Amino acid sequence: MSQGTQWRNWSGLVHAEPSQVLTPSSTDEVAQIVTDAARAGQRVKPIGSGHSFTPIAVADDVQLRMDRMDRLVALDADSGLVTVQGGMPLHALNPLLAAAGLAMTNLGDIDRQTIAGAISTSTHGTGARFGSIATQVRALRLVLADGSDVRCSATEEPELFAAARVGLGALGVIAEVTLQCEPAFVLRAVEAPLPLAQTLDELPGLVDDNDHFEFFWFPHTTTALTKTTARLPAGVELRPVGRLHDLLVNRLATNTVLDLALRFGTRVPHAIPAITRGLTRAMGPSEVVDQSYKVFASTRETRFNEGEFAIPRAAVVDVVREIDRWVASHDEKIGFPLEVRFTAADDIWLAPTYERETAYIAFHAYHQHPYQRYFAAMQDILGAAGGRPHWGKMHDLDAAALRPRYPRFDDFVAVRDKLDSTGVFANDYLDRVLGPCPEAAGHGR
Q1: Helices 272-282, 258-267: crossing angle, 10 deg rounding
Q2: pTM for this entry
Q3: pLDDT by residue (tens digit) across 195-225?
Q4: CATH number, domain 186-389
C-alpha cells in the first residue's frame, strides 16, 4: 500500500491522488478491501491500464490497481470458454489464447487495456457482423458494494449480467471474466488510400462485403486511408510485417514522425493542413497476413486525447460529409485523423450499440494541442445524429442528456441503486453520467 500516490491516465489529461493505493491478488482480498472501505464511508475504484480518456476510473479514496489479478483461471479448448482474472491485459491474453489454438472473435485497434476495463467501457473493433468485446463475455464474477462475491451469466443473475457486461465500474469490481473464444484464425489486411468521396459512395459495399472494414481520414485532405480485412483459416501461409517495414512504417512513420510533426504543428498551427496532406501522401498501400490478434492491434505511441460516438450506421455518410463541411468553414487546425468503424447491434443495456447497427466515429487531438472547440463541434454533430458516447472517450454529457439515448438507461440505474445505494463505487464522473446514488449524501459525499 502507498499513500497519496498521484496517478495519470495514458494521455496525461486525467489525474487522481487517492488516499490509498492497494494491489489485491485475489477475489477474497478485493472483497475485504471493499468491505473495509464501505464501513469507513470511502469510495473504491479499480483501474487497469489508464487508457480511458474520461475520469471514469478516478479514485479519491481507495484505488485498486489490478496488476496482480492477471492470471488465467480456466481454459477449455474444446468449448472455447476461457476464464481470466479481471486485471488480465489483452496483450497478455492474446498470445496465451493463441498457444491453446484459440482467439478472440474481434478486438480493438490497441491491446493495452485490461479485459475488465475493455468490457466495462464497451471497447470495440470493426466489422458489421461482429459485436464489441463485451458480446464475447459469457459470465462475470463481481465483488459488490457489500463485499459479497457474485457470479452472473445469461442464466444466473441475468439482470445483473445484462447490466454488468458494460457496467462502467458502477456495479462492482470485476474479479473474473469468462469469454467465449473461437478457434485461432488468420487475417489478411490490405491498407490502401482511396478518395474520400469514392469511399463514402461505396461505403455500404465496403462494409458489407468484407469481414472487417474501417477508414481513417485526416481533415484538410480529400483522401481516406482504408483498411480491409478478411478472415482466413489458421493453416494458411503467413506473410507478417517484415522487421524493416515494421521499423520504418509502424514505428518511425506512424509514431515517431507523427509525434514530431504534431509537436511542430502545435507550435505552428497554420502548418497543420500541409502536415496532414504530407502524412496522407506518405501512407501507401500495404498487405499483411498474420495471426488475428497481431493484425487487429496496432502500436500507438503518440499521445493524444480522444472522443468517440456511436451513431446509427445509416447516418454515417451524411455525418462524415457534415464534419467535412464544418472543417472547411471553420479555422480549426486538426492534426489527427478521424477513425470510422462499424459494429453489430447487441442487447447490452449501456452498450452504445444497443439494438442498432452502428458506425463509430472517433476524433482525436495531439495531447499538447487545444481540443475544446473541435471536440465540442464533433459532439454536437454526432449527437444530432443520435450519437451515444463511448464510455472511455471524452464527452461532457450528463444523465439528463444520456437517458433518452439509451432505452434501458433507467433499468441500469435501478440495478446500480439497488447494489450500491451509498456510492461505494461512484465518483464525480459516474455521478454526472448516471446521477448520484440515492444514499450517497448519507456518507458525506
Answers
A1: 170
A2: 0.94
A3: 999 999 999 999 999 999 999 999 999 999 9
A4: 3.40.462.10
